[in-house]
Amino acid sequence: MTRDEAFALLTKYNKEDFHLHHAQTVEGTMRYFAEKLGYGDEADFWALVGLLHDIDFEMWPEQHCRKAPELLAEAGADERLIHAVVSHGYGLCSDVAPEHEMEKVLFACDELTGLIGAAALMRPSKSCQDMELKSLKKKFKDKRFAAGCDREVIARGAEMLGWDLDRLLSETLEAMKACEG
Q1: Sign of the CA dihedral 125, 20, 89, 32?
Q2: Among 11, 78, 86, 142, whose CB has the most other CB atoms within 10 angstroms?
Q3: What global pTM score does this model have?
Q4: 166's torsion region: left (phi>0), alpha (psi -120 to 50) or beta?
Q5: What is the residue extent of each domain of the chain?
Q6: Pairwise CA distance, residues 37 & 181, whole Å
Q7: Number of neighbouring beta carbons within 10 Å of residue 57
Q8: Crossing angle of helices 3-13/43-52, nearest 10°?
Q9: Which string of DSSP letters, residue by residue, matches 130-152?
């Protein structure tokens, strides 16, 4: 599946700017991590998984990660992409566990990109370019800030990767800086 085909598929089921922006943010973040973690030859695949990870969320929120396999299979996606997409909802709306490092990165970063994006919008610059880890950690600790971003999921993702929370926060912030805009 090409990036253009994936984007057309995404926009077939997602119309809201917020969801499209989130998908593209996670796409860029996943590409960054593929390169950073030594999977540069799979960067396009990692990015596609990031782009399509919430394909079913806007139209079927109550079936999130359960409707996605059908939509992706109809579009000709392979089993590896489908497994990766479904695994990001592990323990929340899916019983498919992240196995590959890429799936664990997606699980860890999905919620975190939302938190970083919300924190960026609070800044005068409306950007994460001038955000520091200290500021992000303060927002992470404030449970009232971006309350919809599940801190336990983020922490569990860091644990899956074998990273401490600071590393996950720092690396994801750097990833978003690299792909912002």
Answers
A1: negative
A2: 86
A3: 0.95
A4: alpha
A5: 3-179
A6: 23
A7: 21
A8: 10
A9: T--HHHHHHHHH-TTTTTTS-HH
d(CA 84, CA 16): 23
Whole-angstrom CA distances from 48 to 42, 55, 118, 128, 152 are: 10, 11, 23, 23, 26
What does the pLDDT look like over 82-124, one tens digit per residue? Answer: 999 999 999 999 999 999 999 999 999 999 999 999 999 999 9
Whether the predicted pLDDT of 181 surpasses 80: no
Instruction: Find, among 83, 89, 29, 28, the residue nearest to 54 by Cα.
Output: 89
Contact of 68 with 82, CB cutoff 8 Å: yes
Neighbouring CB atoms inside 10 A of 148's CB total 8
Q: Is 142 left (phi over 0), alpha (psi -120 to 50) or beta?
A: beta
Phi and psi at 132, nearest 5°, equal -110, 160
What does the block give as tokens for 113? 């990109």
Burial of 77: CB neighbours in 10 Å, binned 0-12, 13-18, 19+: buried
Q: Residue 90, SS3?
A: strand
User: Which two tokens mark 23?
Assistant: 């998908």
Where do we find the tokens 């996605």?
A: 68
Total residues belonging to the chain: 181
